[in-house]
Design goal:
By secondary structure, this protein is α+β, with helices and mostly antiparallel strands. It has one domain. It is 37% helix and 28% strand. The chain has 3 helices and 6 strands. The chain has a 4-stranded antiparallel β-sheet with strand order 3-4-5-6. The radius of gyration is 20 Å and the shape is elongated. The model has no long low-confidence stretch (mean pLDDT 90).
């Protein structure tokens, strides 16, 4: 089984090292990129099989978070569709975390303005 892949549309196709290297531009790799506050969620086509075990499909796509709370956490999958779904799932969690952080910050600011007299 090939270790190197290129995308033909949205389909990973096995290839040799030279073809892999020639087809690995940022535009070809990027699946999705979103920013939520100080966090960025990035999903890319790796082009290199990251399944180092003897079983299972090649892991060719990766979603990674950059920024507080989830910095450099990543998840990998085999297909373009799975990559899009994974990105949406991670993005939803990041949005929820960011909203909660904003609410907690606002609550802390209110507490501090009251001179720390708020409820404990």
């Amino acid at each position: 089984m090939s270790r190197y892949y290129r995308l033909d549309g949205r389909t990973p196709v096995p290839c040799d090292l030279e073809t892999y290297a020639l087809n690995l531009t940022d535009a070809q790799r990027r699946v999705r990129l979103d920013t939520v506050g100080p966090m960025t969620v990035s999903t890319v086509f790796l082009g290199l099989d990251h399944n180092y075990g003897p079983e299972g499909p090649p892991l060719l796509f990766e979603t990674m978070v950059f920024g507080p709370a989830f910095d450099q956490m990543y998840w990998r999958c085999a297909t373009y569709l799975q990559a899009e779904e994974m990105h949406d799932t991670v993005l939803a969690v990041v949005h929820k975390h960011h909203e909660q952080a904003e609410q907690l910050t606002a609550e802390l600011v209110r507490e501090l303005r009251m001179g720390g007299q708020g409820s404990s």
